[in-house]
Amino acid sequence: MSPSDFPARLLQTLGPDTVLTAADDIAPWLADWRGLYKGQAQAVVRPRSTEEVAACLALCQQAGVAVVPRGGNTGLCGGATPDASPANVVLSLDRMNAIRSIDTIANTMVAEAGCILGNLRRAAQEAGRLLPLSLAAEDSSQIGGNVATNAGGVNVVRYGMARELVLGLEAVLPTGEVFHGLRTLRKDNTGYDLKQLLIGSEGTLGVITAVALRLFPRTDVRSVVLAAVESPMQALRLFELLFQKCGARLQAFEFFSGDCVDLVLKHAEGVQEPFAQRYPAYVLVELADTADEAALNALLESVIGQALEEGLCLDAAVSASLAQLQALWKLREEISEAQRADGPHLKHDVSLPIERIPDFMASAEARVRALYPDIRPYIFGHFGDGNLHYNLSRPAGADRDWAAAHGAAITDAVLDEVNRYGGSISAEHGIGQLKRDHFLHSKNPLELRLMREIKAVLDPAGIMNPGKLL
Ligand code: FAD
Ligand code: ZN
Question: Among 141, 335, 349, 350, which residue has the most ligand 1 atoms within 8 Å of its CB, making it the best to mutate?
């Protein structure tokens, strides 16, 4: 098939209701969530079934047309945005949004890729189960996008990333062949685990059409403490004690600097200074269990009592009501928005071997201050997973476009430190277009070669999401 026959064949095969080609119809599909990336496409395809996805990919491969899978478009790295070539096809999963099954004996859910994550969490809840994957964009992002980016979120310290929650998946390869891996087995040692290649592949190997997920008991009983700490090292020691004493009940362990609290108090409404005095940093700890609130509260109070006695924190506020619990969480949840209100800034979503976080933080700060002594770091993140949002705002009084003008050198310095400490330049959000250059520099040659060879096996014509990741 020649490229000029392609649009007609696509329309003929899938129909005008599924294939959009008018410029006005496809315009909303060409930019990313923040409007940082814009691209072009000749068509947007919105299939309703795995068979339609397969038919679309087979035609694209025959014509050598690039395909950009698109979920909820909340990935912040430009991964679901087409590049500048006008020949692209954007393949949106939004109409494949059925829950195929929920099983409360096997504790599994099978859902199509276009299901909104928040809807799946609510469906699990109604069935008396927990789908622990939870992130601020859950009411827009799709489970297919979550799996394609190996999403994380706030409960990773207990339940792991998306990768650990997927039991099986169904995907369409660029040849149009369907990979039937939608198994719900807990144990399966029959060779290479091929589904893991598709998880985190950011649409570069194939299109995920359905996933089988693990469910857990609902943990409706929650207890939260905000602990003040003098340093990241003290936060580490507190983590060590909590993990030992609370085990699997430890559901979140979030860190933020005292400066983050300043920013939140300045920009967010309905938040209060948590203690009579300001401390260098804070840790928000959540324990959760299936039952027995009194026992959970007593456990948290006794562990925090021990931590105060042993000098593992400076001060602590335990939630005594749901309102207090929500108020403590609000301090953490409002940080991103408060930093956005403060103006353009540099974001680095990095992870480190957890025990090296204190040294990394000291050395990264020295590097960036050597470049710009008055830069304002706002460091927070999922400390229990070794994941920091190492965000830097412009010096007080600098122009709003300061970050754009000086960002490249600062980001190079931060990511260089991440590599030096054996960390990862992308903990949660993936690579997309945004971090491609740093990714190509940070991986060792053998890893890159193997990734390219895997890509060539699964996508020999190179039609899947070109210009992303590799
Ligand atoms: P999209 O943005 O549509 O796509 C992301 C990538 O996956 C693209 O490369 C796309 O081509 C590919 N893709 C999408 N669907 C498929 C499919 N069916 N098959 C194959 N490839 C596909 N992420 C976290 O991990 N943790 C967080 O805590 C977190 N918080 C966030 C908070 C906010 C406010 C926002 C805006 C984003 C946040 N994110 C977070 C990032 C984002 O929500 C996740 O990366 C999410 O998993 C992306 O899902 P999506 O459906 O929006 O995917
Ligand atoms: Zn995060």
Answer: 141
